[in-house]
Design a protein that fits this description.
mainly alpha, 74% helix
């Protein structure tokens, strides 16, 4: 995927998230659409491109949503980690997308909530009432957004695991 398409897609996602943040709340939290976009591009590209996509996504969160600059580092690290495990995961499964998204949201919120709790908000309330509902809500929406992004930006690259999986399915054997 080319950089201009990635940047334009992340900008559109962040504008949509910033504009709809107050309208799609559930239990007081809104989903992290930019983080889902970062995970999509990281899982389809690799660790270094994922880190750059995460940094761009964090920068867009800072600009459009008014997040703290710590989010830039967190999204960059999440993009790097997701790109690092690109080969270990079968990223087209909805359950894998949900689990990866939940882990990413929980890990970013834990660190971000530490920052919030330093200004007087109790940490346990931030975890139970912000991080966990946001992770559940975002992970439930992740497969839908992944499918939409795959439809809009089809991946040209085919990795080795997909070829082996398709070959074993075609031959009628159960994949190991």
């Amino acid at each position: 995927m080319s950089w201009p398409r990635i940047i334009i897609t992340l900008v559109v996602i962040s504008v949509l998230e910033a504009g709809s943040r107050n309208y799609i709340k559930l239990l007081g939290v809104s989903p992290e659409f930019v983080l889902i976009g970062v995970l999509f591009f990281s899982l389809n590209s690799g660790k270094w491109k994922g880190a750059v996509c995460g940094s761009i996504g964090g920068l867009l969160e800072m600009v459009f949503c008014g997040a703290h600059p710590l989010i830039l580092i967190l999204y960059g690290a999440i993009g790097y980690a997701a790109g690092l495990y690109k080969e270990a995961l079968y990223r087209h499964l909805a359950s894998a997308q949900m689990i990866i998204t939940a882990i990413a949201v929980i890990s970013s919120m834990f660190v971000y909530d530490l920052f919030i709790s330093s200004s007087g908000f109790p940490y346990y309330k931030a975890v139970f009432f912000l991080a966990i509902p946001a992770a559940i809500y975002t992970s439930l929406l992740a497969p839908l957004i992944f499918r939409a992004l795959e439809f809009l930006m089809p991946s040209i690259e085919t990795d080795y695991k997909e070829i082996v999986f398709k070959k074993k399915v075609f031959e009628g054997r159960r994949p190991q």
